[in-house]
Amino acid sequence: MTSGDLHLILASCAGIALSIWLIARIGFHPFFGLLCGALAIGVLAGLGPAPTVAAIEKGFGDILGGTGLVVALGLGLGTILQISGGAQALAGAIFRRTGERHAALGALAAALLLGLPLFFETGVVLLLPIIAAGIPAGDDRRRLTVMLSALAGLSVLHALLPPHPGPLVAAGILQAPVGAIIPIGLLAAIPTALVAGPLLARLTTHHVGPTDPPILIQPESAQASAARASVALLFPVVLIASGAVVRATIPGGGDAAAASGLPGVLLALADPVTALLLANLLALALLFPRRIGEKALHENIWAEAVRPAAGIVLSIGAGGSLKQVLVGAGLPQVFGKLADTQIASPLVIAWLVAAAIRVATGSATVATITAAGIMSSVVAGSAIPAYWFVLAIGTGSVFLSHVNDPGFWLVRGYLGTSVADTLRLWSTLETVIAVFGLLMVLLLHYASTLI
Question: How many helices (H) and strands (E) does the chain have?
Fold first, then answer.
């Protein structure tokens, strides 16, 4: 490692530390604190004023172009479900089947079932309001335990299983068969989610301060039926899943399907933004059939949805800015040099590279794709099948989510916790997924060598 590499690492650490200090100790809004940190990293790393500003703008725009729309439309759907009473009806139906004692396991199971075809952000905005609505007000610890269990399920799927973008693209880069990744990924994902979700939450939720989630809205009318609410909730899940099936079954993937009539239409409808927009319209028709033309209803829905959306979306965008400055400064390439070392098993090296890029950039998808590219020559010369590397990289890609991760601010907005408590709850959860998930991958790989 050169002196320039060390300088870049120190500059990155200083900028991230500045963001944490401004937000957690001084009380700056995350949007402002993260932008200050991004600017400081660009200056300290020698990126230059103009490239730093360009990276900040690009990172902000890129993340809001997709995630921002998903968050806004997801909040809209969640608000419709809550104002109509559908969220409460759905939550009651889930928890009646699991019982109060096993509510966390029910939330985890729902996340694993619904989250398979969904991007992480889409799963969060669809599922967490439903989960939170079923927990009595004032029982903060139980609510956090149940919500963290759902988050654990969504996160392990995002890290390990196609059609989530990270493992899917990594499989393409490393030429690994998706058909082998899915079953092995499930074997690693389920025990990892159990440990990082219900079991870990029993420990981390102790001594967490009072929470004030902005997503809990009291119904303004009689409770809607759980059946109608479930149709509105599952509609975007089915659409997005259909898109994943089209991409997986048509030769050439999405590009070929886009030019082939009906499959192309399905792909357009399966885009998370389109699916959520249609789900909002369907939810209005199902849950407010006689009031769909009332202007006051629509004003109330979006007033409630926009209130939390503003802070969450701005924080996510600023997290994207901080990530882009780190990428522009060249930090992923510095950590990529780990791949040239011989300090451990190639699978552990792959995990370390992904984890280092994740901590530096804040993006699990960027960490997965970048680490796959860095490790491609190692994988080509290794006797270990490529799909094991995809899984090892996937677990490393979620290591230690913190303030440069847009998902950190999305989760914080839904949990309603302070920055310090979010670090304790969410960052610990992600770290346990990364470490325990790697252990599961190594164990399964070792078992496969004995067969």
Answer: 23, 0
Are the CB atoms for 386 and 379 separated by under 8 Å?
A: yes
- Do you find a cis peptide bond into 385, omega within 30 degrees of 0? no
16: which 2 tokens? 């991230």
Taking 3-state DSSP, the helix, strand and coil percentages for the chain, each rounded to the nearest 5, stand at 80, 0, 20
The three-state secondary structure class of 12 is: helix
Between the CA of residue 258 and those of 167, 241, 264, 268, 277, what are the distances in Å? 22, 16, 4, 8, 20
* Structural contact between residues 357 and 327, judged by C-beta atoms closer than 8 angstroms: no
pLDDT band at 151 (very low <50, low <70, confident <90, very high): very high
Question: What tokens were used for 172?
Answer: 């393409």
Q: Exposure string (b/e) for 332-344, b if CB count within 10 Å is 16 or more?
A: bebbbebbeeeee
pLDDT tens digits for 204-237?
A: 998 887 666 545 556 665 567 888 888 888 888 7
* Angle at CA of residue 390, ends 263 and 9, nearest 5°: 115
Closest CA to 211 of 283, 285, 128, 99: 128
Among residues 267, 277, 279, the alpha carbon closest in space to that of 240 is found at: 267
Q: For the stretch 353-364, what's the b/e string if a residue is b when 16 or more beta carbons lie within 10 angstroms of its beta carbon?
A: bbbbbbbbbbbb
pLDDT reported for residue 386? 94
User: Can you spell out the DSSP letters for 281-304?
Assistant: HHHHHHH-TTTTT-HHHHHHHHHH
Cα–Cα distance list, 325 to 43, 65, 434, 441 (Å): 10, 18, 24, 32
Nearest to 322 by CA among 430, 260, 405, 233: 405
**Tens-place pLDDT, residues 171-205:** 888 888 877 888 899 999 999 999 999 999 999 99
Domain count, the chain: 1
Q: What percent of the chain has pLDDT over 70?
A: 90
Report CA-CA distances (Å) from 35 to 22, 314, 320, 418: 11, 10, 10, 19
Q: What are phi and psi of 349, to 5 degrees?
A: -60, -45
Express each pLDDT in 269-316 by its tens digit.
Answer: 888 788 889 999 999 999 898 888 888 888 888 887 777 667 767 877
Q: Which residue has the tokens 């960052």?
A: 427
What range does the domain containing 149 cover? 3-450
What are the CA-CA distances from residue 308 to residues 140, 167, 189, 314, 425 (Å)?
19, 31, 31, 10, 20
